[in-house]
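Async update (no meeting this week)

Hi team, since we skipped the sync, here's where things stand on the single-chain job. The sequence we agreed to prioritize is pasted below, unchanged from the tracker. I ran it this morning and attached the output directly underneath so nobody has to dig for it. Comments welcome in thread, and please keep replies under the output.
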Amino acid sequence: MDDFKLKITRILLISNGHGEDLNSSLIGDALSSVKPNLTVDAFPIVGEGKSYIKKGIKIVAHLKSMPSGGIFYLNIINLIKDLFSGLIGLTIQQIITITKIKNNYDLVIAVGDIVPLFFAYLTGKKYISFLVANSSYYEGKLKLPFLTKLLLRSNRCQLIFAKDKYTAQDLQNQGFTKTICVGYPIMDDLKPTGKNLELCSEKTMIALLPGSRLPEALRNFSLQLAVCEKLVNISSENWQFLGALVPTITEEDLSNIEGWEYDSGVLSKEIDGKHITVKVYHDAFADILLQCNLVLGMAGTAVEQAVGLGKPVIQIPGKGPQFTYRFAEAQMRLLGSSTITMEENKDNQVMCEKTAYKIIEVLDDREFLEQCVINGKERIGTTGASLAMAKAIIIKDLPFQGIRKL
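Output:
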């Protein structure tokens, strides 16, 4: 086994989604810090691999964005759109590519669900699985597809990472004895930039997280702005609203939001004699999340990070393709008591008003706010998971005995 350990000089990361890419890139960055002479490349199956590019990790896959962003399982229409956008051709091309480059690597790390796990198996190499898309919190017991179970039981599968201890214990009980949990890497990405958000300590700050995919994120943001309006209307409190937006939402997009004036990073509006402003940032996500009092969230990974920080999260169902009521409800089961999902309502004005009242109710509930901190640590955990994973992979620093060595 020591001989194999010495041969790990080239690792391929395979992932399939925005959150998966983020987790994978953080693991890759940590691997390089543990073993600086290591070659770490990335194979993102969907999307543009922006997380890898940000970390300077070489991408060796053909990139092409699909309409669903890889979330076609929520809606058959999204799958149809992907098919018409060349999903089958892209998949065939990716399979051809993975078979061509497989001998360039000693170890493969699959981050996501069955798809990256299947691609890892195709390489013929030993592989590690991080089941970032799976959690026993959804249903109480993890029900893995037959093929997933088969690939996890393969002799070539060396280690299984679960993103929470509850899932790790469940998988252990199901006979997957190679399963461990050392935390959730996404919390390692929350490093403040030190940007001055010009906050007033006496005012409550609401963070608006509309998601990362256009045009959905822009629609979500407009809905969140409507909630801000209702909140100012029904409350005498002075609020601070900060939007953490992706760079693909341009100044032109913001200038075209109906009913709002936009100038130099600030959206403003007069409502029944009251002036409301919403500051927007493209480069201060961690700063906003760390300093907010409550999150109005219509996102996946970003909401998980908010919960990990102990923040209360109010979720509004959108039109999709990602953030629908079905997605939000599933995320609420995953993240526990910290998240509250508003009921769908065809009348957006009614839904936004109910959301505004819910925000006030939550912020007045001191016991609930304290529970959010406890729940966040239990469901998501704290920082350090990326490095812990890297050490488990490279130097076999495992949290308990009984795991088969690489």
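Quick observations from my side:
Residues 1-6, 401-406 have pLDDT under 50 and may be disordered.
Residues 216-234 form the longest helix (19 residues).
Reply here if anything looks off.
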